[in-house]
Amino acid sequence: MAEEAEPYMLPRNAQESQRLDAQHEYMRQMSFGHLTHPSIPALRLKAVADIATGTGVWLRQLAEDPALDPPTQGEPPNFVGFDISSEQFPSTDALPPNLAFVTHDFVNSFPAEHHERFDLVNVRLVSYAIKAVDLEKVVQNIIQLIRPGGYLQWQETDASDSWAHPETATATSCVNFVIAEKIDRGLLPGIATPLVKTILAMKANLADGQKNPISWSDDLMRLVHLETVSTLNHPSPAVEAGKKVAVMSAATALLKARIHRKQTALDSLSPSDNETEGLKEELRSMNKTLEAIERGDETNGSSWDFDLTWIIARKAIKLDDVTQGWMTAKKPAH
Q1: Which pLDDT value is given to residue 1?
Q2: Is there a contact between 182 and 9 (Cβ–Cβ < 8 Å)?
């Protein structure tokens, strides 16, 4: 039987914060330099939320983006980062007044003052933090933050979205160990397809006579853009150049998480326990794989790539009277 464990696989410390910031820069290159997808109108973003914000690097960079500058004498946009832990939040001394960070677990409903507040909610790389049984609840809670007509941007990649060519024993072992760890923690081995299905399954609960001009249906979210972006043959030279560091740093961090948990389990057993030998053998195998990655064996004659799923969806607008004004509601002027 799989051991129970906390869903989030990675540590929260200075070294991991540095890795997350470097990962963000690589993800931005994979996203063709964009913080938000071009289908999202920047000038309409008056309030933005970032879920599982970590160090807040995505939100801080967006807050400095001149494309979001308000018109003359306009109010600057508000930015709020949410995370279950405040350990990696930036110092409040360096934050502008329109940028805030809030501790919140997205498995629970957000405080009412944030409901339907945000023009854009950004979510990224939370497949290592959402238990399979909580996926629908988490999606529902996040969508509740979006104002009618607002946008959801969600980017995900999993160990199961990566591959080596030519295939190597080290790559296969690493991916298999990470997937096994996700399953042990109750996470989905691959989140992309279940996530899209969950988002599109949400209903708007329209009252009699109400219409939703976003999709002319009772769908709560309309899919605006769905794309798989791959490191393989990516047009950016920076993506190709940084691929090795990005993949190996993530693989190492995730593999270390399983090694740490299994070592802790072994240390809690008596030498005569029946599980001892099995744990020792798995630890030997995992440490061998980790050492091969850290030596660079994995990149000698082999390339390791991965896919990123990029989802953009827009929330329903409920109109009681569609005889006039629905076009303006759907596509307001910038």
Answers
A1: 38
A2: yes
Spatial neighbors of 329 by CB under 8 A, at least 6 apart, are 149, 213, 317, 319
What's residue 3's pLDDT?
45
Q: Where are the alpha helices (DSSP H) in 35-191?
A: 57-63, 135-143, 169-184
Angstrom distances, CA of residue 27 to CA of 35, 101, 152, 157, 253? 9, 22, 17, 10, 17
Between CA 170 and CA 174 the distance in angstroms is 6
pLDDT tens digits for range 274-304: 889 999 999 999 999 999 888 877 556 678 8
What's the N-to-C CA distance of the chain in angstroms? 55
Inter-residue contact 141 to 110 (CB < 8 Å): yes
d(Cα 172, Cα 176) in Å, to the nearest integer? 6
The helix (H) or strand (E) run that includes residue 306 is strand 303-315
pTM for the predicted model, two decimal places: 0.92
CB-based burial label for 87 (10 Å; 0-12, 13-18, 19+) = middle
Residue 90 is classified by DSSP as P
Residues 6+ apart with CB under 8 A from 238: 29
259 and 283 Cβ atoms separated by less than 8 Å: yes
Alpha-carbon span 231 to 201, nearest angstrom: 30
